[in-house]
Design a protein that fits this description.
Elements: E1 6-11, H1 16-26, E2 31-37, E3 45-46, H2 52-62, E4 66-69, H3 83-104, E5 107-113, H4 136-151, E6 155-160, E7 163-164, H5 171-181, E8 184-188, E9 192-193, E10 196-197, H6 198-210, E11 215-218, E12 225-226, H7 227-237, E13 243-247, H8 267-272, H9 280-290
Parallel strand pairs: 1-2, 1-4, 2-3, 4-5, 5-6, 6-11, 7-10, 8-13
Antiparallel strand pairs: 9-12
Helix pairs in contact: 1-6, 2-3, 3-4, 5-7
Length: 292
């Protein structure tokens, strides 16, 4: 006799994390997964997350036990000039999803960011530390967090940082491409964070979701480094000859202000997981050996 599968709704199956999460969910034989994307890419349903009726009707039809939301506005610099759009996607739409999830009794798992913190000090940020974003992107993600909490839905918010993965544009791909084309590069060395492989993050998302681990959680790969350290390690692993030079944030101005220290304290999350989280070095080495 075959045991009954329980239903998962994955909203936002495109993108760097969404793609990785979708691949891992497909490997499981204990769940039925319904996936959505903005464009209705192969294997997904098209969903306009800005329309509450569409979101509500989908959830009512699917009747999921768990909803994973990996939809987000992620262009940190462009958000400075597109604040209404960033707030809509990262804030208001998340609030609508939370309201619909609450009505259905589903457990909502949502991804947030280290950018909800100001980046001051030199101590890893705990989940209950005071939040104070310094850019529009961070403020929009914090709005989403607040609306989830106000909705009364049973939820897990997972904050993470410095993502890279099997698809999409990210720092690792960019730095290796530039290093191959140039003999020297300047890389910011006064910002500190924790690089995170989407493979590890997706496993954490699934683990906490299936355990219905309510509350706010932090997850990154173990350890911390600067962008310069990260670039140097990646270039070394790939045996690319390129001279890397340290520079300050002030020497590399961007439209959006970046947190100087955004390391997340993930110890409580690590204790909840059923596997040992890799260091950022080990995870990056594995990624570079298999993907690039």
């Amino acid at each position: 006799m075959t045991s009954k599968k329980f239903t998962i709704l994955h909203i936002g199956a495109e993108g760097m994390l969404g793609t990785q999460l979708g691949l891992l969910l497909k490997e499981r034989n204990d769940v039925k997964v319904v996936s959505t994307s903005r464009m209705g890419i192969k294997g997904t349903q098209a969903l306009d997350i800005t329309l509450y009726d569409q979101v509500r009707e989908l959830i009512e039809c699917v009747k999921p036990c768990i909803i994973f939301n990996t939809t987000a506005y992620t262009n940190v610099d462009l958000a400075e000039s597109e604040e209404p759009l960033a707030n809509l996607i990262n804030g208001d739409c998340v609030g609508m999803l939370a309201t619909a999830s609450k009505a259905s009794g589903a457990f909502l798992v949502h991804i947030s960011t280290d950018y909800v913190f100001p980046g001051s000090g030199d101590t890893p940020w705990k989940p209950n530390d005071l939040v104070s974003p310094i850019n529009v992107y961070g403020s929009s993600k914090l709005l989403g967090e607040a609306l989830i909490q106000e909705s009364g839905v049973d939820y897990a918010i997972i904050r993470t940082s410095w993502l890279y993965g099997i698809c999409g544009n990210h720092f690792i791909k960019t730095i290796l491409s530039l290093a191959q084309d140039r003999g020297s590069l300047k890389v910011v060395s006064d910002q500190t964070g924790s690089p995170t492989n989407t493979y590890d993050l997706a496993n954490c998302v699934i683990d906490l979701g299936f355990k219905r681990a309510s509350g706010i959680h932090h997850f990154c790969n173990q350890g911390q480094c600067s962008w310069f350290d990260l670039a140097s390690y990646a270039v070394k692993i790939k045996n690319i000859e390129c001279d890397l030079e340290r520079c300050s944030t002030d020497e590399f101005p961007m439209p959006a202000q970046r947190p100087i220290y955004s390391v997340l304290d993930c110890r409580e999350t690590y204790e909840k997981l059923s596997w040992e989280v890799r260091s950022w070095q080990d995870s990056l080495t594995d990624y570079l050996s298999n993907e690039l």
